[in-house]
Amino acid sequence: xxNPFHDFLIEILDxxxxxxxxxxxxxxxxxxxLQLTADDFIQKGYDNKQAVQMAKELFGESQKIGNVMQExxxxxxxxxxxxxxxxxxxxxxxxxxxxxxxxxxxxxxWLFLSMGSSSILLLYALPILPALNRKKWLNTSLIxxxxxxxxxxxxxxSLNHSFSVFLTLFALVIMLYTTAxxxxxxxxxxxxxxxxxxxxxxxxxxxxxxxxxxIISFSLYYFWIILVFSxxxxxxxxxxxxxxxxxxxxxxxxxxxxxRNKVKAAYSIxxxxxxxxxxxxxxxxxxxxxxxNI
Length: 294
Known about the structure:
By secondary structure, the chain is mostly helical. About 75% of the residues lie in helices and about 0% in strands.
């Protein structure tokens, strides 16, 4: 028989980021507290249904409790995301208006997409859609945000005005801020209470995030070059994105191995994306040398 507090507790835990093991622990702790409170009311003469309802009311509104616990577990995340979102929106509008006023032409598509990216971060900062508040979705949004404002920085550098320097530096700050948020969310904010190998997990997260952003940048850059210089699109062009797929697969495999306490195997797998990174760096250096081929 389902306990009478189940749905109430699920509503609370839905507001909180974290893995399933951590949530199971929190579920048990909260359930014990609620059951003890209900027992007190029963001893005072209330029936079971009344005792359960009064225990819930005394505990508080589920969404508010969940938000308080989320903030306690991940302090200042909402404030940092709110600041990033608002600063990004300000930058998007500034670049759009600068191009419109100084150049007489501006990219409305980029404005729409960049404002959309910033608005998604705003949803994470405000308790509007708590179901989205998960590490994988947040980090995906942050990665997209970086590349969205990388293009915004290119728009800023193309302005023939001294204001271009300020906007370029502003975009650089936004990208660095967003990158720092990815590291913070994955390595520092994420709860490891149910994981024995905490240090290896953090090391592998740091390595893979760093390698991943370089691999993604490299792949998207050359994919963009191929699209620019090709007259028609071919599915074979998507092969340039293969390193990204390999990185995602290896990253996932490493973390699963750590969870299963196979740390040595995880570190062995980590050599592959690191080697891929070295190959990319050598390729970039070779391409930049006189006589090198891109």
